[in-house]
Write a structure and sequence with these properties.
Blueprint lengths: L1 H22 L18 E3 L5 E3 L7 E7 L8 H12 L4 E7 L11 H12 L18 H7 L1 H4 L12 E4 L5 E5 L8 H8 L1
Length: 193
C-alpha cells in the first residue's frame, strides 16, 4: 500500500512539474505576436511632406504599389471609389508609385501627382516613388514581404497594384494579387468585417 501511495505521489508531482513548464511562454511563441507593425514607418508623400503611419492607428489600411503606364492603371478609378465609399469607416488606402515593373512609372513625384489628380481625381494618400523589390527595396516593403518581420507570410511583389491589407492594429493580414480588383468581394467583406 505504501508503495502504491508513493507511486501516486510521484506521479502527481511529475505531472505538476510538466504542466508548469507548459504554461511558460515567451513572446516569440505566442501566435500572432511580433515586434513590428506598420505604425513604425514614416515616409514622404508626393509633395515631400512626412507621412507617419502611426497617425492611422485604429484604421484598416490597404497599401498598394501603383504605376501610371500599366495595363492595370485603371484600377486607380476603383481604388478611389473604394476610398470614397469607406473612408469614413476607419479605412484608408495608401499608394506607393514604383517603377519596378517594365519602367511603367517613369514620372517624377510631381508628374505622378498631376497624373493621379487629372485622370482619376485621386484623394487617398499617395507617397513618393519608392522601390518595392530588389536590392533597393524600401524598408516598409521589406516589412510587408518578410514573414520574419510581418509575422504572417513571405511574399514577393509580383506586379503593379499588388495590395497588402493591414488590420486596425497595424498587422499584415492578407496579400492580394495585382489582378484582383480593389472592389472584389473578399476585400469589401474584409473592410466591413
Amino acid at each position: 500500500m505504501k508503495k502504491i501511495l508513493g507511486i501516486m505521489c510521484l506521479s502527481i508531482i511529475m505531472t505538476s512539474c510538466n504542466n508548469s513548464k507548459k504554461e511558460i511562454k515567451t513572446p516569440e511563441s505566442e501566435v500572432g505576436i511580433n515586434s513590428e507593425n506598420i505604425y513604425q514607418f514614416k515616409v514622404n508623400d508626393l509633395y515631400g511632406d512626412e507621412f507617419d503611419f502611426s497617425s492611422l492607428q485604429g484604421k484598416k489600411i490597404m497599401v498598394v504599389n501603383t504605376a501610371s503606364k500599366c495595363g492595370l492603371t485603371p484600377q486607380y478609378k476603383r481604388l478611389q471609389a473604394l476610398y470614397e465609399l469607406y473612408k469614413n469607416d476607419d479605412f484608408v488606402i495608401v499608394g506607393f508609385p514604383a517603377n519596378n515593373f517594365g519602367g511603367q512609372e517613369p514620372g517624377t513625384n510631381q508628374e505622378i501627382a498631376s497624373f493621379c489628380k487629372e485622370n482619376y481625381d485621386v484623394s487617398f494618400p499617395m507617397m513618393s516613388k519608392i522601390s518595392v523589390k530588389g536590392d533597393d527595396m524600401h524598408d516598409m516593403y521589406q516589412f510587408l514581404t518578410s514573414k520574419n518581420r510581418n509575422g504572417l507570410q513571405d511574399s514577393e511583389v509580383g506586379w503593379n497594384f499588388q495590395k497588402y491589407l493591414i488590420d486596425a492594429k497595424g498587422q499584415l493580414v492578407k496579400v492580394i494579387s495585382p489582378k484582383t480588383l480593389p472592389d472584389d468581394t473578399s476585400i469589401i467583406d474584409w473592410i466591413k468585417g
